[in-house]
């Protein structure tokens, strides 16, 4: 059977790093509060000339380099983002143009922080359905543009960045030993809309709006939702937490990551944590975490890797793949 195998990956971060202490003169907060409640120590913040498209392009080029491919080899770009350069056209199409690609097709996917997990599952279906052979899956965000910088309960949490993988159609035997995407489980429930949303949009206010979050409410639901979708993915693949080599969760809050891993029985040393370095970069967080763990030699070819995310909507999901 056809499997969607990761052939390369890459990442890109804005030049400017903002430390927790940099907020101390802006809002009433402290490095100690931010580290204790979230695990975040710093985040990257985009300059005017750094956008979701430019960061996404840079991550895509890095992923192509690591795959030993060029844009000519790609037939689909799926970009997960909630901070597109423009309301339309899709920023994926802008990235396609920046890459000098005038063949194939590209589209954006909007599932907030779950965007990359949704995009990998979607790309896998395009590959297995025969519509694409090689897909660039990108998560790129500039959440700094939609933050209310006077709201301490949200502005300290988010950062900008991009990550990407190249998925390629390869023959597999159909079992759990195959490389590539092995199982996925996606969920959403709009009843939770008011707990995490942006208070503007083209069809309502005609403005971009700012991110609003009832953090405590999101926190309350996060662990249960994350563990449900991971257990569904384990059941699909016929595995348990012990079979995993790496758990690469969405990087929103260290406490949520720790509580989810504990509930699932995933050993601490198998959990990839980068929230301290990047903050919450929404759809970019999982591919950015992947890029760190691949670069430092933790994630290697053949490893069994579980991706997970939960975000606005609510949306949530998990993907199991063999690297
Ligand atoms: N500095 C200092 N104090 C603060 C700050 C800050 N930056 N922010 C809030 N506080 C205060 C609050 O005002 C509150 O004060 P009070 O007790 O006097 O009312 C106190 O700290 C505690 O606030 P809580 O909201 O209860 O703090 P909590 O421990 O829940 O941590 C946090 C807040 C970090 C936001 C946490 O709730 C969280 O991580 N929530 C989930 C976020 C998440 O996972 N989002 C999903 C993905 S994001 C996406 O999809 C876009």
Report on the architecture of this protein.
It is built from nine helices and 13 strands. It is α/β, with parallel strands linked by helices and about 325 residues long. The strands form four sheets. Strands 1-7-6-4-5 form a five-stranded mixed β-sheet, sandwiched between helices. A four-stranded mixed β-sheet has the order 8-13-12-11, with helices on both faces. The mean pLDDT is about 100. The site of acetyl coenzyme *A has 23 residues, from helix 1, helix 5 and helix 6.
At a glance:
With 323 residues, the chain is of the alpha/beta class.
Sheet with the most strands, sense and barrel status: 5 strands, mixed
Which ions, cofactors or small ligands are bound in this entry? acetyl coenzyme *A
Terminal residue distance: 17 Å
Please tally the helical runs, counting DSSP H or I stretches of 4 or more residues. 9
Q: Any guess at the CATH architecture of the largest domain? A: 3-Layer(aba) Sandwich
| SSE series | EEHEHEHEHEHEEEEHEHHHEE
How many DSSP E strands?
A: 13
Strand content: 25-35%
Contiguous runs where pLDDT drops below 50 for at least 5 residues: none
Number of domains: 2
Mean pLDDT: 98
């Amino acid at each position: 059977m056809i499997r969607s195998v990761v052939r390369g990956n890459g990442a890109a971060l804005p030049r400017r790093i903002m430390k927790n202490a940099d907020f101390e003169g802006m809002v009433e907060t402290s490095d100690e509060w931010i580290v204790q409640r979230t695990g975040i120590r710093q985040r990257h913040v985009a300059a005017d000339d750094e956008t979701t498209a430019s960061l996404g392009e840079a991550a895509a080029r890095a992923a192509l380099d690591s795959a030993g491919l060029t844009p000519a080899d790609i037939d689909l770009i799926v970009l997960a983002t909630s901070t597109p350069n423009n309301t339309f056209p899709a920023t994926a199409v802008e990235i396609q143009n920046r890459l000098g690609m005038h063949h194939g097709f590209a589209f954006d996917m909007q599932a907030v922080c779950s965007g990359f997990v949704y995009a990998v599952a979607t790309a896998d279906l395009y590959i297995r359905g025969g519509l694409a052979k090689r897909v660039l899956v990108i998560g790129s965000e500039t959440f700094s543009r939609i933050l209310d910088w006077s709201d301490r309960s949200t502005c300290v949490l988010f950062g900008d960045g991009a990550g990407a993988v190249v998925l390629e159609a390869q023959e597999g035997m159909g079992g759990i030993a195959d490389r590539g995407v092995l199982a996925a489980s996606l969920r959403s429930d709009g009843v939770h809309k008011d707990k995490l949303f942006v208070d503007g949009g083209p069809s309502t206010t005609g403005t971009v709006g700012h991110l609003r979050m009832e953090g405590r409410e999101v926190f309350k639901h996060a662990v249960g939702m994350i563990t449900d979708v991971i257990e569904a993915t384990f059941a699909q693949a016929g595995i348990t937490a012990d079979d995993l080599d790496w758990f690469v969760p969405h990087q929103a809050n260290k406490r949520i990551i720790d509580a989810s891993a504990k509930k699932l029985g995933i050993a601490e040393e198998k959990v990839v944590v980068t929230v301290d370095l990047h903050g919450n970069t929404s759809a970019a967080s999982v591919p950015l975490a992947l890029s760190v763990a691949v670069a430092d030699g933790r994630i290697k070819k053949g490893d069994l890797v579980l991706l997970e995310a939960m975000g606005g909507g609510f949306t949530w999901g998990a993907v199991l793949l063999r690297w």
